[in-house]
Amino acid sequence: MAPQREWFEKDYYKTLGVGEDATAKEITKAYRKLARELHPDKNPGDDAAEERFKEVSAAYDVLGDQERRTEYDEVRRMGPMAGAGGMGAPGGRGGFTFNMGDMQDGGLGDILGNMFGRGARTGGRSGVGPRRGADLETSLTIDFADAARGLTTALHLTTDATCSTCGGSGARPGTAPRVCSNCGGRGMIDDNQGMFSFSSPCPVCQGQGSVIDDPCPTCRGSGIEKRAREVKTRLPAGVRDGQTIRLKGRGAPGRNGGPAGDLLVHITVRPHERFGRKGDDLTVTVPIAFAEAALGGDIEVPTLDGGHVTLRLKPGTQSGSRHRVRGKGIETPRKTGDLIVTVHVEVPRDLNDEQRSAIEELARATTISPRTTT
Ligand SMILES: [Zn+2]
Ligand SMILES: [Zn+2]
Predict the structure, then answer these.
(1) This prediction's pTM
(2) Distance 223 CA to ligand 2 centre (A)
C-alpha cells in the first residue's frame, strides 16, 4: 500500500507508546497489550476505547510491517518540509513544496511513490519493488439473529482487476506505452520559483509518466477492468451494527508479488422487532399481569432462537424492573452474554363485573396509598 496522507499527521510510535528505535518485537508486544485492553468486546459501548482501538490497529498496520515502517520513517523524516506547503498554500517554511492538483485518488501515494522510486500506479511502468494491493471496502446488511449467531455469507464485489487483454499495460496487445517525452517519465514537471520548486502533474501524460498511442480496446488504456468477485466469509457471532470487519488479504491483488490488500466490510444490523442488544447481552420486554407481579410466579420468556426460558418472579415485582437470565444472550467465542428481561405490568383496560368487584375488594383492603410517605 502506498504511503498515506495520515502518515504526515500521525505519530504511530506515540500511539503505541514505544520509542522510534523500538524493535519489531517490542512494537508487537506493545500492540498486543493495547489491543487486549482496548478491545471493543471488553469495553462495550465505550466509544473512546473503540476509537483508541482503531488508532492502535492503524498504527500497528504500519509499524508492524518492516517495509511499511521504513517508508513511514522516511515520510516523517521529510514531513516538516513536505508539510510546509504541500497540503495547502505554500507556507514558505520549508525548502521545497508540492502543489498537488488532486489529493484524492491516491495522488499523494503516487507522488510519494515517485519519491521512493517505485513508479506511478500504471501497470505499464510498474514500479521496482513489490507493492501491496489496495484495501477495498464494501458494506453488508444482516439480520439481528444472524449478527448474534454468526453467519457464513458471500460478499459480491465489483473490483478493479488487471486488464486481461493487455496485461495491465493499457496498450493494445503487440504495442507498448512509450515514456512521456514532456516529463521524461517522471509524471511530474517542476516549476522553479526562487527557493521553492512547485511540482505538478505532467499535462501531457496526466501524471502517468507514459503515453499510450494505441490503447487497449478492452480497458481503453487504463490497464484495469472491472471484474465481479465473490468473497466467502464467516462473520463471527456478536457482530455489531456499525462495526467494520477487516478481512486480511481479501482486497485488491498486490503488484509485483506484493501482498493483497484487505477487504473492509462495514456492517449494518437490521433491528429485531422484539429483541435489543447491549454488548453481548440481549434485551427483551415482556408484559405481565398485575396478579403475577403482586403474587410472583413463573413466566415464560422468549429467547432469540425461538424457544422459551422460565423466569421466576418474586412477589411484589415492579413494573419496569429488570431480570437477568444467565447465558441466554449472545454466544461469542470468548464469552456468553445474558438475557435481560424488563417486565411491564399491564393494567387491564376492560373489566368484567367479576374482575371489577375483585379489584374494588382489593381497593377496600388497601389502607396505605403508594403516595403516602412515612
Ligand atoms: Zn487493457
Ligand atoms: Zn508526462
Answers:
(1) 0.51
(2) 17
